[in-house]
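Lab notebook, bench 4. Still working through the backlog of constructs that have no structural model yet. Next entry is a single chain of 506 residues. Request: give me the structure tokens for it.
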Amino acid sequence: MVFYMADGTTVSVAPKFTGSSYLDTASGNVGTILGVDDEDMPIIHELLRVWREKYPRNLIRGAYYDCKERFKDFGISIPDQIKNKVEAMIGWPELAVRSLSDLSDLEGFSVSGDDTMGVNDLFEDNQLDVATSELIVSAYKHSCSFLTIAADPENPDRISMIPRSADWSAGIWDRHNHRLAAALTITEDDKDGRICAFNVWLPGKVYECSGHLTPWRAEKIETNFDQPTAVALAYDRQMDRPFGHSRISRSLMSLVDAGFRTVVRMEASAEFYSVPKLWFIGANRDAFSSNTWTSLIQAINAITADENGELPQLHQVQQASMTPHSDMLKTLAMLVASQTRVPVDYLGITLDNPTSADAMASAERRLTRIADKQNVAFGRELKRAMGIAVALREGANTIPDSMRDVHPVWAPTREISDAARADAFTKIADKITGYADSDVGLERLGLTREEITRLRADQQRQKSEQRIDQLMDRSAASSEVTDGSEQSGSAGTGESAASSETGETA
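Model written out:
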């Protein structure tokens, strides 16, 4: 399959992709859509143009991530028998993505006071911990990903938050408000990869468009919201690249191609030297049968002397060393480690001097610093998405001000020993009153949001049981006091009667 890029170049993908799910970029040339307001058609056309332009490159990056890239040969030293059968085997692009994405683990949202907005319910209903992981992997792979928020028409209390990949989406950035101005998400295609349906997310409205074989039509859903009900998560967002950069950069793809060629050359060299190469200097060709290999492996081999009585000389070609190939592969791995900030040990390369624990920690800190920075950026967009979801459920047209007190909670990006956590926790708790039993302190101690929630539930249950026991004790004590008073009053009456009787008798 060949794609024509915006700069006039062509890019082809490997034939082994046949049967995969590809979209036909030509089907994105949509004309008029019935049901779309005239002022919105230019935006939809621009979104479709952006998707057509970005889709081929996103597809190529996805191929490198899945280790299905095409072998790019120089046509010099590799025979066709090997070149036509080799398959990709270097997983550096996936490692570049997953080594960083695994450090971003969304545990939930912290809410000051009672969760009156139902943030935790929205988090659980949409499984945002899992969805966020998918979003981040896609963002590192394609540079960005999208999260759309919509109310269920049949159940307005049900808010759907769906992750969208960049290869099936497009967006336009609003630089003034630092958010999406519009977004497009493809929702359906046919068996030939032609687009059958897509949604357009605009301020105040959403268009659900369908067609292709029939005239395109759209159903407009009024959201009455002041911004598109979609957010974009981007890696390394910058002023000139609001949708970020991909972790699978052009330089990384070039290094993977060089590593691929190196391994194939190593394989070709091994195949060439796997059969002994013998040279008989001065021997007659008639001395060998048609099956040369059978002659070589016979138990006894002999060649007679020539007419001058001279014996032929035997020379064997020695197998070439694999060291130059492995050294080149190690050099490429070092370049990949420098490009991706991934420790070289992760790339399957063993150095002559084993890496010390301090050196490993220093190399990993480069990744954790990037992850911490990205978690802040991702958290902003996820907080915006949660605010949109709350507003849609409440029927508001803006994000509530109370969302300012809601913050995403990420798992620590660095591994810290339990002893170090406990030591820091004890020292801080001695200085700050109430720190030991606060959520902040428990998070610093290493407890997850789920563990903190369970702990709070256990503490609440224990408090309830203590209150019940106290009420029961008070009730029992009150009963004893009442019974004692009644007994005391009866005894006094008896004594008076006896005295009276005694007096009367007297």
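Notes after review: The two ends are 130 Å apart (CA to CA). The chain has a mean pLDDT of 82. Flag for follow-up if needed.
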